[in-house]
Amino acid sequence: MWVSLRSKVIFSLLLIALTRQSPCLGQKDLYIFRNIKTSAGLASDVVTSILQDDRGFMWLATGNGLQKYDGNSFITYHHDPYDSLSIPTDNVGSLMQDRKKDLWIFTAFLGFDVFSPVAGKNTGGPDLVSPSFRDLNRSIIGCLDARGNPWLISLGTLEKYDEEHHRLVSYDDLLPKDKPIGTPKSVLCDPRTGNLWLISYSYGLCMLDPVKKIICHQWNNPDNLPIFHLVRDPGTFYLDRESNLWVSSYSGELYKYNLITRQARQYFPGKTITIDCIMQDRTGTIWMGARSDGLAKYDPRTDSFSLISRDPQMPGGLDYDRVINCVYEDREGNIWIGSDKGISIFNPYRQQFRSVNLGVTKNEVVNTTAVLNFVQTKTNDIWLATYGQGIQVFDEHLEYKTSFTYKGTHGHVGEPGERVWSFLTQPDGNILIGSQHGWIAVYDQKTGSFINSQPPRAGKAYDL
User: Fold this and answer.
1) How would you write 395-456 as a 3-class SS string?
2) Which residues pair with 218 in a beta bridge?
3) Are 201 and 306 found together in one domain?
4) Where are the beta strands (DSSP E) in 212-320?
5) Which CATH number is 437's domain given?
6) DSSP state, 24?
7) Domain shared by 320 and 397, yes or no
8) 461: pLDDT confidence band, cut at 50, 70 and 90?
9) I want to staple 49 with a disulfide (CB 3.0 to 4.6 A). Which of 71, 94, 107, 273 is the partner?
10) Is there a domain that residue 249 lies in?
11) Minimum mean pLDDT among 9-23, 58-72, 219-233, 260-274: which range?
12) How do residues 320-352 score in pLDDT, each as one tens digit?
């Protein structure tokens, strides 16, 4: 599956790298994105959640169904009112994969379902149709704890599904009694402590300690944790591997709070920045969707941020309208961005370009050396067709090896101006070479020699 996706990305990178202006290569955090929209088969411009299953397929929650993507084509699953095993609605909200490799589909108004990626249908298992699940039929969000148990939250209901014993464990008696906790906006589980964190419209940031059987928030804080008074209106949060809880607010604040040291730091002070999603990649770098500010990149080595701006006019630029809904890293290290304008894919650690400067040649066009074509031979050498310097040969690491020119000692091309335009490799390893004024050469890879010829008419037609 990923061979085709990787080749498409690499080919796009080569094309964009050759067409972009050279000064751009020196800019900080220059990334090249592959943007996928409805014209390429995406069911909807709105993508709210992305994950990769154990077989390598990418699953996309969209505004027009659930999609499976293999790097080449999409398979779309829609709601069918006459099929009880179809997805609950086409407006899919978020996705979660459990330890059985099933997908949990959460929707805004129709609760959740468990979907089998192999069968392409809801499982419809006996657990989910039992009466104890009825209070969770409006659950719009969930997470997994360190043991793989799903936690499910709906309006006024908080439950853990015990996978081993196939039963629900209710924590409703711990919920605040003075007013409903409301529909949660976000939820996550701390694998170190087992505590559940959630953001409530009514109580703000909350923490459930299942061992002490207590829910803490800004009005119930027996341990005086500073985190509950840090942000007035929390909107998005994320727990990284260093036990830092990142919390953003609707008013445009961003904080990092360490759950072990209880130390906090604010970023972008004096600036309003709205964060909608956060993800930490395998290197420890943290990526955030920052609305009008683009994609925010946090480097833990320098404890600093850089911003990748939205650039829809630039080929290979980050393209979305107003919001980045989700950020996901696949097993190859590719970063997938779901937005209100489809998907953007890039790999921040495979986009390092090495610039090779060729000497300047004075010709009838301009004092420069243009690279018109390139090919990789069976010996992995890279040949460059140049306008004015013949054929320049590099090894696979872009180290210069030799050149083939009009009067070269290592072989020569027949065109006196050394203006080479094209290559065509043959199954036997020989290379056909097209040059100015109809000159054609055949390179014999066994003998390392050239056979040059020029059609008579082409020789009479031009004086250059």
Assistant:
1) CCCCCEEEEEECCCCCCECCCCCCEEEEEEECCCCCEEEEEHHHCEEEEECCCCEEEEECCH
2) none
3) yes
4) 214-216, 234-239, 244-249, 254-258, 264-267, 277-280, 286-289, 295-299, 304-308
5) 2.40.10
6) G
7) no
8) very low
9) 94
10) yes
11) 9-23
12) 999 999 999 999 999 999 999 999 999 998 865
In a domain, 12, yes or no: yes
The H-or-E segment that residue 126 falls in is helix 126-129
**Paired tokens of 75:** 């398979």
Write 246-251 long-range contacts (CB < 8 A, 24+). 246/278, 246/286, 246/288, 247/205, 248/273, 248/274, 248/275, 248/278, 248/288, 250/274
Whether residues 440 and 334 share a domain: the answer is no
pTM of the predicted protein model: 0.73
What 8-state DSSP symbol labels residue 9?
Answer: H
pLDDT value at 137 more than 80: no
Mean pLDDT for 7-20 is: 44
Q: What DSSP assignment string belongs to 132-175?
A: GGGGGTT--EEEE-TTS-EEEEETTEEEEEETTTTEEEE-GGGS
State the CB neighbour count (10 A cutoff) for residue 129: 9
Which CA distances in Å does 27 have to 21, 225, 308? Answer: 11, 42, 11
* Burial track 34-67 (b if 16+ CB lie within 10 A, e otherwise): bbbeeeeebbbbbbbbbbbbeeebbbbbbebbbb
Q: By CB neighbour count within 10 A (0-12 exposed, 13-18 middle, 19+ buried), where does 31 fall? A: middle
Please give the Cα distance from 133 to 167 (Å, whole number).
10
Q: Which residues contact 177 (CB under 8 A, 6 or more apart)?
A: none
Label the pairing between strands 431-435 and 420-425: antiparallel
Q: For the segment 288-314, what is each residue's pLDDT rounded down to a tens digit?
A: 999 999 999 999 999 999 999 988 888
The boundaries of the domain holding residue 388 are 370-461
Residues 6+ apart with CB under 8 A from 128: 113, 114
State whether 112 and 182 are in the same domain: yes
**Is 363 part of a structural domain of the chain?**
no
The angle formed by the CA atoms of residues 326, 332 and 336, to the nearest 5 degrees, is: 20
- Do 38 and 175 fall into the same domain? yes
Residue 172 to residue 177: CA distance in whole angstroms: 10
Joined together, the tokens standing for residue 14 give: 């080569």
Indicate whether 276 and 375 sit together in one domain: no
